[in-house]
């Protein structure tokens, strides 16, 4: 695949009669999910839409490819939490899709092919060129480098579109979608008086902001009254961390990837430095404070960080997945007269699948730690109904309890555990993190990696179950905690910061109280009864709740008010799991609106994935692209677009300059971008 895309198709070359109205597809969100969808449009268009004209409008205030989360202008200290060889935007023959497979480079392969190119876009491009040249498959890339890869994938997708298909880029935000179910839709944009008209609309919004809930509003008001600092849930790279006081305690609630970003930005980002190696266990890494760091007191429900990324590959035979939760089992659940219940019907199959992968690997790769043969164990395991029967089977076949899969302990490792003091808690947590690091980088525990593959397999099946797949978001949280944790070097840095006294652990089930009498925030944990930590600053190190009831997206809020269906527990927008069409409250799929991404009931494990792992998002993108092209290819009946109502007033929009595309649209520069920054936009 060439690194420089061929000339982009020109709308002037598109065959059509001058009087014909060109069909129009509006894609709202041009980040990785929108880019992946566009790649599938290009892959399927020649077979499903050959010889026809089509206008594709991409709407996003951020540059296409990376979008907001993976934009270029963020700290170079922020990494991906995946190795470069585990990141691809391209399909392979492991993806179950109806459209054509179009293979392409994973991130490290793209970097190797492009690494010899010198930067020609200023200091940032020169730095990215150096990063590309130094990248290996086992490197954890910066997010800025991932942004460059995603931008390249976007350019390739545009270049692969057939003649007659024209891309129009709108560097602004969508405010509202209106229009009758049977007619063309109107998409209202910030900074544009007239709406776009669309035959179909596809929402690929990515991660969204949310308004604070009642508890966060109370904490914010408490902070205002007492002159304290309260940072609500947010994307850490977007938060203003400059107000966090140097040398003073800061309570931090949340121990996932948002905390890791916070930890990096207020330590190394404030001038601290490292000596020793972050690639080795044993405490060799040392942090040297700059004196400008706050002291982070971190706690959460579990009280421990997400599990480290696994630092080895799986050799030999992989577990034959799916086994207990595959298409046949999902078909049976969907065929029931009554809807499947997650706790009763789905979770037991998930647990059985994870256990199957674990024990298959243990018996095949480490047979000296098992008793009996795999064939007999597998037969008995398949017949076991769970509970005591399954526990007895495993205990008889796997002598060492450390080799048995205990999902409850994995999920809550500190449940019921107490510590004599906060100092004892620090020692205990450092021991736990060091042990997790050692295990996750030790191939003798390769059953853990087999479980990781089972997690990916399960996620691909749950998408089809809609609400029953993950009704309250707990499964997604468990998946992220177990399979989407930080790189090993980040946890070694966490240990070094703990030894330096810059990070302190609060323990599990952390509770935050607002003490009006003393005018401080107070944190407690049942793991250290009778002790507490007080501070004048509180950071909620987690993502905001983007449910329609609290979303800051006027587009999603308007769709909800108009009748889009939403789950009652997790607040996800309901979509048809087969093709991503938005469902209305009566369960009817909207004929002209689709949605893909983490805000929907068909959310997957990510917009990009590890090669040869089935890529659930790729399968969804393909199904939606094929459905959209099929609908667009049908003769369009004359139907009204509905009465024109002006869009709601637009709030401030910030944006980076748009990347080159076929036809950037004539819209006013977004606020915060100088006219010169978009001087290349066609006007």
From TrEMBL:
The record's annotation in InterPro entries points to:
FAD/NAD-bd_sf, HpyO/CreE_NAD-binding, L-asp_N-monooxygenase_NS-form
Region of interest: Disordered: 1-21, 639-683
- FAD-dependent urate hydroxylase HpyO/Asp monooxygenase CreE-like FAD/NAD(P)-binding domain: which residues? 26-207
Comp. bias regions, Low complexity: 10-21, 639-664
What is this protein's record name? Answer: Adenylate cyclase
């Amino acid at each position: 695949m060439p690194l420089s895309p061929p000339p982009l198709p020109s709308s002037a070359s598109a065959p059509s009669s001058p009087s014909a109205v060109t069909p129009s597809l509006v894609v709202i969100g041009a980040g990785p999910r929108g880019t992946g969808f566009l790649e599938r449009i290009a892959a399927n268009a020649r077979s499903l839409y050959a010889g026809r004209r089509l206008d594709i409008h991409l709407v996003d205030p951020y540059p296409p490819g990376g979008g907001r989360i993976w934009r270029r202008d963020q700290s170079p200290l922020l990494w991906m939490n995946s190795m470069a060889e585990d990141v691809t935007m391209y399909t392979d023959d492991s993806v179950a899709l109806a459209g054509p497979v179009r293979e392409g480079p994973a991130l490290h392969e793209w970097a190797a092919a492009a690494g010899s190119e010198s930067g020609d876009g200023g200091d940032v491009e020169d730095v990215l060129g150096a990063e590309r040249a130094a990248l290996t498959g086992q490197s954890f890339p910066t997010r800025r480098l991932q942004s460059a890869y995603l931008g390249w994938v976007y350019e390739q997708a545009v270049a692969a579109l057939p003649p007659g298909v024209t891309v129009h880029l709108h560097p602004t935000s969508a405010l509202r979608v209106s229009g009758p179910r049977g007619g063309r839709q109107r998409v209202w944009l910030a900074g544009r008086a007239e709406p776009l008209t669309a035959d179909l609309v596809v929402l690929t919004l990515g991660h969204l902001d949310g308004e604070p809930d009642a508890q966060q509003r109370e904490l914010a008001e408490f902070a205002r009254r007492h002159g304290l600092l309260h940072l609500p849930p947010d994307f850490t790279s977007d938060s203003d961390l400059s107000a966090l006081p140097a040398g003073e305690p800061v309570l931090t609630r949340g121990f996932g990837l948002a905390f890791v970003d916070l930890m990096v930005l207020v330590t190394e980002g404030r001038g601290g430095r490292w000596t020793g190696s972050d690639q080795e266990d044993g405490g060799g890494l040392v942090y040297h404070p700059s004196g400008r760091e706050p002291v982070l007191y971190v706690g959460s429900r579990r009280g421990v960080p997400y599990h480290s990324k696994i630092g080895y590959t799986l050799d030999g035979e992989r577990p034959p997945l799916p086994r207990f939760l595959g298409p046949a089992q999902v078909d049976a659940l969907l065929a029931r007269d009554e809807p499947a219940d997650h706790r009763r019907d789905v979770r037991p199959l998930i647990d059985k699948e994870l256990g199957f992968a674990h024990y298959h690997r243990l018996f095949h790769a480490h047979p000296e730690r098992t008793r009996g043969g795999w064939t007999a164990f597998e037969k008995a395991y398949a017949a076991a109904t769970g509970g005591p029967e399954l526990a007895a089977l495993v205990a008889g076949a796997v002598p060492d309890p450390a080799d048995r899969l205990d999902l409850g302990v994995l999920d809550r490792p500190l449940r019921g555990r107490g510590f004599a003091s906060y100092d004892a808690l620090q020692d205990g947590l450092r021991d736990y993190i060091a042990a997790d690091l050692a295990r996750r980088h030790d191939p003798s525990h390769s059953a853990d990696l087999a479980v990781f593959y089972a997690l990916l397999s399960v996620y691909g099946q749950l998408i089809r179950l809609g609400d029953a797949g993950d009704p309250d978001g707990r499964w997604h949280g468990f998946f992220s905690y177990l399979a989407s944790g930080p790189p090993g070097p980040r946890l070694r840095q966490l240990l070094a910061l703990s030894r330096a006294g810059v990070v302190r652990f609060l323990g599990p089930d952390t509770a935050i109280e607002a003490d009006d009498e003393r005018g401080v925030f107070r944190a407690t944990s049942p793991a250290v009864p009778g002790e507490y930590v007080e501070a004048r600053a509180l950071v909620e190190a987690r993502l905001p709740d983007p449910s329609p009831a609290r979303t800051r997206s006027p587009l999603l809020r308007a769709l909800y008010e108009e009748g889009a269906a939403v789950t009652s527990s997790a607040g996800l927008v309901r979509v048809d799991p087969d093709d991503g069409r938005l469902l209305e409250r009566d369960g009817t799929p909207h004929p002209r609106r689709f949605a893909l991404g983490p805000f929907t009931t068909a959310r997957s494990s990510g917009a990009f994935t590890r090669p040869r792992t089935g890529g659930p998002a790729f399968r969804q993108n393909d199904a939606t692209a094929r459905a959209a092209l099929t609908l667009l290819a049908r003769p369009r009946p004359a139907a009204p677009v509905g009465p024109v109502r002006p869009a709601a007033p637009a709030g401030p929009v910030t944006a980076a300059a748009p990347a080159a595309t076929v036809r950037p649209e004539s819209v006013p520069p977004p606020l915060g971008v100088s006219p010169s920054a978009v001087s290349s936009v066609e006007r």
